[in-house]
Amino acid sequence: MSLKITLRENKIKSNKSYKKWFARPVHIGEVHTADIAKKIQTNSTFSQGTVKGVIDDFLQEMKQSMESGQTVVIDGLGRFELTVESEGVDDPKDFRIARHIKKVKCKFLQAGKRKMDGTLSLQLSKDAAVDWAPGVWE
After folding, report:
1. What is the number of other CB atoms lying within 10 angstroms of the CB of residue 3?
2. Which of 37, 32, 36 minimizes the C-alpha distance to 51?
3. CA-to-CA distance for 71 and 38, rounded, in angstroms?
4. CA separation for the pair 93, 136 (Å, rounded)
5. Helix (H, G, I), strand (E, B) or coil at 94
6. How many CB atoms lie within 10 A of CB 81?
7. Neighbours of 52 (CB within 10 A)
8. Cβ contact 1:131 at 8 Å
9. Is residue 14 predicted with pLDDT exceeding 80?
10. Chain-centroid distance, C-alpha 95
11. What is the rounded distance in angstroms from the CA atom of residue 134 to the CA atom of residue 118?
12. Angle 33-42/48-67 helices, nearest 10 degrees?
């Protein structure tokens, strides 16, 4: 298996990369919890329903942990944590959560190891194969 890519032209005139072409992944669909549970079932003694139940409970626990301020680390996958986007105020006493918090997002950083030069060697995407999507440059 390989990640399929295509090329897209930057059409933002104000951008210094205007008219340059960049690789973009081609996404071919979605895999849902039930689909993953079904695949796991074929390689284990657990039923699809049991596996899905464990995954659902795991996701609920992840959400609760992040909402309580914890970073959730899934070994071999990465780190998940909630972040907020807000408007700035001149005086901290003027800050109102309902007015100034614009959104809460989930940030993901894939698992990796820090090298001696300070860069991060990413594990999840390490050695991922990349190839042209069907119909591109054939």
Report:
1. 14
2. 37
3. 28
4. 56
5. helix
6. 16
7. 20
8. no
9. yes
10. 30
11. 38
12. 130
Helix (H, G, I), strand (E, B) or coil at 16: coil
Q: State the pairing for strand pair 130-132/3-9.
A: parallel
123: exposed, middle or buried (C-beta count within 10 Å: 0-12, 13-18, 19+)? middle
Contact at 8 Å (CB) between 88 and 101? Answer: no
Please report which confidence band the pLDDT of residue 127 belongs to, taking 50, 70 and 90 as the band edges: confident
Q: With helix as H, strand as E and coil as C, how does 6-43 read?
A: EEEECCCCCCCCCCCEEEEECCCCCCCHHHHHHHHHHC
Tell me the mean pLDDT in the region 34-44: 93
Q: What is the spatial distance between Cα 111 and Cα 123, in angstroms, rounded to a whole number?
A: 6
Structure tokens, 38 = 């079904």
A 10 A CB-CB count for 135 gives: 8
User: Could you give phi then psi for residue 4, rounded to 5 degrees?
Assistant: -90, 140
Instruction: Give the DSSP per-residue string, 91-115.
Output: SGGG--HHHHEEEEEEEEEE-EEE-
Encode pLDDT of 46-93 as tens digits: 999 999 999 999 999 999 999 999 999 999 899 999 999 999 999 999
| Residue position matching structure tokens 């039930």 | 34
